[in-house]
Amino acid sequence: MRFTPLAIAVVSAALVSPVVAHADTRTQDGAPAAPGVSVPGGRYEKAVSVKLTSERGTVVRYTLDGTTPTYRSGLYVPGKPLRISKDTNLTAAAFDGRESGVPVSYGYLIKTREKPIAEFVVMSDVHTDSHTGGDKRYEAYFDTIGSIFPRPDAILSNGDMINDNGDGRGADHKIVSEIFQANLARKGMTDTQLLISNGNHDASLAAVRAGYPREWFPDAGGGYYESNVNGVHLFTVNTETYNGDTAQRAWLKNRLAQITANPASITKPILIQGHRPAPGTVMDGQQTANPLLTQDLADFPQAVYLSGHSHLNINDERSIAQKDFTAVNDGSMSYVEVDHGYQAITDTGLADRFEATTAQALFIEVYKDRTEIARVNMNADKHDIYQGGQWSANPQPPYASSGTLSGPTWVLRLKGTTNQEIKDNFRYTAAARDKVAPEFTSRQPLKAVTTDAGSTAVRIAQAKDDQMVHHYDVNVTETATGAKVVSAKVLSEYYFMPRPNTLDIPLPAGAAGARYTARVVAVDAYGNASPAASLAFGG
Question: How many structural domains is the chain composed of?
Answer without folding.
Answer: 3
